[in-house]
Write a structure and sequence with these properties.
Layout (H helix, E strand, L loop, with lengths): L1 E10 L2 E11 L4 E5 L6 H8 L7 E5 L6 E4 L11 H5 L4 H19 L6 H19 L5 H11 L16 H15 L3 E5 L7 H13 L3 E5 L3 H7 L2 E6 L2 E5 L3 H36 L6 H13 L28 E10 L2 E11 L4 E6 L5 H8 L6 E6 L5 E4 L13 H6 L10 H7 L16 H13 L5 E5 L7 H13 L3 E5 L3 H4 L5 E6 L2 E6 L2 H7 L5 H6 L16 H7 L7 H40 L7 H34 L1
Parallel strand pairs: 3-7, 3-8, 5-6, 6-7, 12-16, 12-17, 14-15, 15-16
Antiparallel strand pairs: 1-2, 1-4, 8-9, 10-11, 10-13, 17-18
């Protein structure tokens, strides 16, 4: 479908790609992997036509559509969410406008027998067929289903996009891209701003509804669940495997080991042959054997071991100055924006040396509580930072705050003080910015390289409380593992905000769960936390609400009875109960009606297919069959949407 031929890219006389070729087939789900800076994002831009290679071509057939989601984007702020997403159907609106214009022209004309009138009818019929095939009747339901799958609720649909954070606006762009249903989807780190529930929905969409996909992601579980082919970019070359990422890692290791064994065996054979030739070169009785061995040696095809990128990050946090025994104490901390209470009654204590995780759905207050701790926003309650606590804070948008117009070296030189300025080159080298890389402008760095650069700034001053908000976004898998080990070795206190279960496993000893306006403390690591909840993943945690309301943490001065009284669930009035029951009945009725429509349409399709099988084929039978199938697809979408609404209501009322 798309053919990449002899592609080469050079930056400042350095080769990024060296004469590489491969083909993207119609149903391929490709994971594009490699170290940060290997060229993954550049490859996507070249395929999307946004960047030109130094040499080589990308052949995209005219009838193949390509959709591209970059890591960072600039969005308009003048429309509501629904209006912005509706742009995905602009081609359908254009077709409808042309049909309306043709209809108006036909109403005015009277030359019914002229060739021009017949040609107009044919054009209108062809365009009407094209419109019917595009699923225009199903647009509204598909749009709502996609937005809800990506975490939006109905009340968000009419809100201006300007009210949403960068992460939520990225979801709006992702929704538009998915609704266009391009033949090839190019996705650059699509999970960076998604919570686990939305990641699960996107996994299912890409697996079942998307056509060809080329995906760059640091989320190992996500790419394993979506992809069936892995292309590794390493040192300007590509290695192509028709398997998912985890299987690729095993096969790559086997390939290198087999190559190494074959290389070593061949080297021994060559050495033995050369030794024989040298030993008997001047003996007349061995002249024939020597000549034979020399010819044999000349014919040997030398085995080469694939070059392996052995460069690696050296990351170690400086020793932490000793802090007080309790770096962080919260009592009844709450935060509201207007009438929206993000969380309330947050009470817990973090001890020196603890490593804890903040988990929960987006919008439940994880980053908001971090901002409260940093003193960036006002809050209610009491929050005390302990004696001699020095905080190092890595924010979600830390990499975006860097000045793109200065060099990597200058970025660090401007914040370094004292003797550390003499070691800047060494520090940059340890973070894989050695040599010419330190003179690069920040704006040309990849997302992962910017994250690494932002991490260096965090290391310049010794701290004893690390707060890391989604630190693994844009990091490749090797760098993520190195960061995890560095945090493990750090002797201070750590708070990690993350949705990455694999990253948190073995790292944290306590989990704080954010949800339903509360913050609950759960002792143990991430898997102990999941086991206690009797669920298999964080996705199920977010979807299934606990059977009973969590009790708030006891304050030192509060009596147990008072704490229990404060957590008592308010009783509903009879009128409120009746209203809830009516709402649930209406939602259930919509589900039942959609199911009845599906059953009816399936019966109609079966009857039409029986006619076709019996040889009874009137002229319109295939049109009726296509229309019935399209109506069934629409009914299935409405049924799925109604089911999602019913489930949301049931969860809300169970709280």
């Amino acid at each position: 479908m798309i053919s990449i031929n002899n592609l080469s890219v050079e930056f400042s006389a350095k080769s990024l790609f060296d004469n590489i070729s491969y083909v993207i087939n119609p149903r391929d789900k490709i994971a594009l992997v490699g170290k940060n800076g290997a060229g993954k994002s550049t490859m996507l831009k070249i395929i999307a036509g946004l960047q030109r290679p130094t040499s080589g071509t990308v052949a995209v057939p005219q009838d193949v559509s390509v959709g591209y989601l970059p890591q960072q984007m600039v969005l308009e702020d003048t429309l509501t969410v629904k209006e912005e997403v509706r742009k995905a159907f602009s081609h359908i609106d254009g077709m409808q406008a042309r049909i309306d214009a043709m209809t108006a022209e036909m109403a005015e004309r009277t030359d019914y027998d002229s060739p021009g009138y017949h040609a107009l009818i044919e054009r209108m019929s062809a365009l009407s067929e094209q419109l019917a095939m595009s699923g225009s009747d199903n647009c509204e339901a598909e749009m709502e289903k996609t937005l809800m799958g990506l975490g939006f609720v109905r009340s968000d649909f009419d809100r201006p996009t300007a009210e949403f954070s960068g992460g939520w606006r990225m979801r709006i762009e992702l929704a538009k891209l998915l609704l266009r249903r391009p033949d090839v989807l190019l996705l650059d780190e699509p999970t960076n701003h998604l919570d686990i529930e939305s990641i699960q929905w996107l996994e299912n969409f890409l697996s079942t509804k998307a056509k060809a996909v080329v995906l760059v992601s640091h989320d190992r579980a996500f790419i394993d669940n979506v992809t069936n082919r892995t292309i590794e970019i390493s040192l300007g070359k590509i290695y192509d495997y028709a398997v998912n990422y985890s299987h690729f890692v095993e096969l790559r290791q086997e390939r290198i080991e087999q190559q190494m064994r074959a290389y070593q065996n061949q080297q021994k054979q060559i050495a033995d042959t050369e030794q024989f030739i040298e030993r008997f070169r001047y003996k007349a009785t061995k002249a024939v054997q020597v000549q034979s061995r020399m010819k044999q040696l000349a014919k040997i095809e030398r085995i080469e071991v694939d070059e392996v990128d052995t460069s690696h990050l050296s990351l170690r946090f400086p020793p932490a100055p000793r802090s007080g025994d309790f770096p962080l104490i919260l009592e009844g901390v709450g935060k509201a924006y207007g009438e929206h209470q993000v969380f309330d009654g947050c009470t817990f204590t973090i001890r020196r040396g603890e490593k804890v995780a903040f988990v929960g759905k987006n919008g439940e207050g994880k980053s908001t509580l971090v901002k409260c701790i940093m003193g960036e926003i006002p809050f209610t309650g009491h929050l005390k930072v302990g004696h001699n606590v020095k905080i190092g804070y890595f924010a979600q948008n830390q990499a975006q705050l860097l000045d793109g117009d200065i060099s990597v070296f200058d970025t660090i030189d401007r914040v370094a003080v004292g003797d550390i300025r003499l070691k800047i080159r060494d520090i940059l080298g340890a973070f894989m910015f050695g040599g010419e890389a330190s003179d690069k402008k920040v704006k040309v760095l990849s997302g992962g390289e910017k994250t690494r650069l932002a991490m260096i700034r965090l290391l310049l001053e010794p701290v004893n409380l690390l707060i890391l908000d989604e630190p693994t976004n844009h990091l490749d898998m090797k760098t993520k593992d190195i960061l995890k080990q560095a945090i493990k070795d750090f002797d201070g206190t750590v708070i990690v905000v993350s949705h990455d279960r694999e990253f948190l496993d073995g790292l944290v000893s306590k989990v704080y769960e954010f949800g339903n306006g509360r913050v609950r403390e759960c002792l143990g690591g991430i898997y102990e936390f999941l086991e206690k909840k009797r669920i298999a993943s964080l996705h199920e945690l977010e979807r299934n609400k606990p059977a009973e309301q969590p009790k708030p943490e006891k304050k030192a001065t509060a009596a147990p009875a008072a704490a229990e009284a404060s957590s008592a669930k308010p009783r509903l009035s009879y009128a409120e109960q009746r209203e809830r029951e009516k709402t649930l009945r209406r939602a259930q009725k919509r589900v039942d009606e959609a199911e009845a429509d599906i059953t009816r349409l399936e019966g109609e399709i079966a009857a039409i297919e029986a006619e076709i099988a019996a040889g009874n084929t009137p002229p319109d039978i295939y049109d009726r069959h296509a229309a019935a199938n399209k109506a069934l697809e629409n009914a299935m979408s409405l049924w799925e949407l109604a089911g999602m609404e019913l489930e949301q209501l049931q969860q809300r009322y169970a709280m």
